[in-house]
Amino acid sequence: MTTRLSPVTGPDISWWTTSRRRVFYDAHTPDWADPHQRGTVPDPGFDLLSAVRPQEDLEILAEAGVDSVVLFAKCQYGNAYYPTTVGRPHSQLRGRDLFGEQLAAAHERGIRVIAYYSNMWDTAAAGAHPDWMLVPSPSRGSTGRWPALCLLGPYRQFALDQVREIARRYPIDGLWSDILTAGPCVCSRCQRAFEAQYGRPMPDDRDDEGWIDLVHFSQQVLFDYLEEQRAVLNEERPEAALIPNFYATTFVDAVIGLTTRHLDLADIGSSEGYTDWHGLGFPSFASSYIQAGVQGRPSEVLVSRFVHTWDFTLRSEAQLRFEAFTVAAHGSTVSVDDQPYASGAIEPEVYRRLAPVFGRIAERSPWLDGAAPERFAALYASQRSRELESVLGAEENPSNGEQSAQFPQSEPRSAPSDLVAAVTGTYRALVEAHLPVDVVDDRPASLARLSDYRVLVLPDALSLSPDEVAAIDAFVRAGGGLVVTGEAGIRDERGRRTAMDPVLRELLGVEFGERGSYTFPYVQLGAELARDLGEWPLPHYGRIATLDGLAEDVRVLATRTDPVLETDESNYWHNNQPAPGRVTGAPVIVERRVGPGRVVVSAARLGNNRARLGHGAYRDLLSALVLRAAGDSPVVAVEGTHHNTEVIPARRGADLVVHLVTGYPVVPLDLYGAAQPAAIEDVARLASLALVVRGAVSAARVVDGVEVALPIRDGRVEIHDVDDWETLVFRTTEQEH
Fold first, then answer.
1. What residues are paired with 336 via a beta bridge?
2. Measured between alpha carbons, how far is 472 from 489 in angstroms, rounded to an integer?
3. Is the whole model's pTM more than 0.90, yes or no?
4. How many alpha carbons fall within 13 Å on the CB side of residue 522?
5. How far apart, in whole angstroms, are the C-alpha atoms of residue 51 and residue 60?
6. 727 Cβ partners below 8 Å, 6+ apart?
7. How far is CA 297 from CA 288, 351, 370, 439, 558, in A?
8. Cβ distance 583 to 561 under 8 Å?
9. What is the per-residue pLDDT across 496-536, written as a single tens digit (0 to 9) for each?
10. How far apart are CA 127 and CA 112, in angstroms?
11. SS3 609
12. Average pLDDT, the chain
């Protein structure tokens, strides 16, 4: 159990930088008195929300060590949980101010309160005012079970008025602004506004040359609305933090409108990091992505108590630990998504399991507060690239193999853009190789931080503005390393093929030609790489572009081998990928020196293949190229492989703090038609693990909140009986800072 918090008595914005233990009280509850919410209900007399006990419930949260909570003011059904004069109060409350009672109970226990507000999903308002509804773009189709509202219609003022009412009436500490991803809207209002701005009808297909205009139009609609919401909050409750749900990582189609620019309006960055949606590595990626987005401001990542969000199951304590510890070690707030029952009662077992998890996070807070990530590799994930993925991406390819040959499916993705696999595959490869990696983007403030890193990785950066090229060029010429995978700078902002920027052409020393004709080529490593990584050809999913016009000082590190045939419906080699055949000698990976910097260019899509093949060879190749370009190694090295252990180093004053988070999943049997996601059922244990920290003169291991000295020799330490989150503290020589 953690130390009891003092009651909340007033505003304290700085408090958010050390808040780490949050519960998201996910209480969307339909009101069966509204025919638009009722549906087919077997027992319409069931007494919804009858078992809500604010004092008892918040006491359970406090005992579990919760320091902040998201409580519902208005849910996605459109129901208010307080006696609103603007919206629709939930009829089952019969005038009761549930939100106000919960807020008071939380503040009495020192728990900060963030009011939840659903923006574009509101079943009640959509049913009562059909003319307010959003009309989804034909390219996107239905918005699903939730009717969405247009933000250029009367609903906009309705929503802003309700936010004003909440902020004026209650001493909220923050507003959690949700559901900003329902667009684009193609109703008559939006059609007229688009045509007035762009002088042409709104496109309804991503092949239309005006598709990027629709992307930007959607972005501006959301920005203007969120900016107005920000202004309302500032007027009524200026000390309250605005927390938009920035569910806009690389895999979300940019046409819905959310962009990194919206985070300039956020006091706290928030992203959903559910492993049942995107795998066990997702909390790590989501933490890095949202931290890059808010550029030093507080951030949170939502993880879940559910096995399948949201299904009223309960994750094992081991998986709760792994997900929460990953987020906390990265420096973000852990926000655990919990959903009460239909009666409003909470499940106490959730908090029994959560208490030791939050207890460990509280114990490690002294080594998390005030820490800054140790910089090494910067992974480039620009908004510009996200927009081109909306234009140039493609649906996943079906397997070329027989249905009996599903281990794994052959999925060559030869679309011009494959950003999701490129970025996430690269990220996981570097994490598994224990190379510290942060995400950077194309905003000026982010580009200005490049000098903090040893190496920059550009995966599938198809379009680069002159400002981006200038920043990258300056970074390399000042001694930075650059690794380019896939084509770079060969498209304009609308996705049209264009000549490379001369500055970029000079920097890389090559040009990207046409893509090869084979969907399953091979990468043959040259002697220098093969010595450490192996001489056998690496299967590559997807066509590889040629590298043309090599400068005189360019060295070839790998070449292309073509397969014996091209697989199609009538031609095939066995069941899956055709065997390697003709050795072409065509360069695939090259390098050159540019002043004190080093540039590596790979026409092969390395991160993409790490993601699609699940093949460790691409992890090893990519990490080797990153180290080669960096011309240096990270300050922390792990002896042995330990790919399931993430190493997260940070600087805290004169100390280097190294977090080690380990998870070992139960092995799934993933049969075709019966996919079984990986899960963590046991707390990971390692007999021993050794680290070498360059320049370290002393070392300690955090045990029960106390630093215990470790023997250290030549910067090497060994720890035994390693659990799922270890924290080590090193004092290093001044030159390593």
1. 23, 303
2. 12
3. yes
4. 23
5. 15
6. 364, 367, 657, 658, 659, 660, 701, 702
7. 13, 28, 12, 15, 42
8. yes
9. 999 999 999 999 999 999 999 998 999 999 999 999 999 99
10. 34
11. helix
12. 93
